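Write out this protein's structure.
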Amino acid sequence: MASPALTDISRADRTLDVPPVKRVDHGPPPQFMPLRMNETLSMEPRVPPKGEVFVFRFRSQWQRISAHDAATWLTQDETRRAALLPSPALRYRYISSRAVLRLAVARLFGCEPSAVDLRDDAKGRLLAQATGINTVLCADIGYAGVWIMLAISAAQVGLGTSLPSFGSGSDAPLSDTASPLPFGRQRARDNSLLSAAGHRSATDNPDSADDLAANGAWYVFDLPMPGQLCASICSLTPMNTIHAFGWSKRNENGR
């Protein structure tokens, strides 16, 4: 059965007119384990327990998946959605993100990528399951500049990114809020919370980000990013270990 299409593809910035998150529990910092992106191919099958998060950062030109394999792993619905995107670059980015997500989930489940089903829950959050396996994993996709970013966890998880705006760098302070964080970092955190909570944008969010944070415990970690790019990951449960594929210093050219 074809997976329901995502209601938003880029999800690079979801916080237009949404107040920044102020009441999010960051908890003790998780162990951050940087790995090369190519080590995705040698992952041993293991379903991540709660508290462990797998994140991946790569460029759409990552060569470890052939164009033929990527195309065959997509469902008919995903193929139609890719065809509707307005440029070849966006189509390639969308196909790459879905194909690599299937590859990563397949490595964790010990199955073939073609056996991985990606579907949305009632709030549009990504779920991943393999044929014949009852375990369901939560996932998210984000984009930051040239980077594609993925997150996989046993609990609800969200990625948030922020790009520097012309005329105001990501290190500019927030002058109209009580947050002591630079604007770019705060916006990335807000975006990660909105994504984990299943809100694609402010228009379908009846509550503010403050209310979302107040209604339950959320845990946020700022991911290291180059330059003025900002990225955060938010989880419904405390994070103790983050396996970060694509963050190793040896990860030259997205490998």
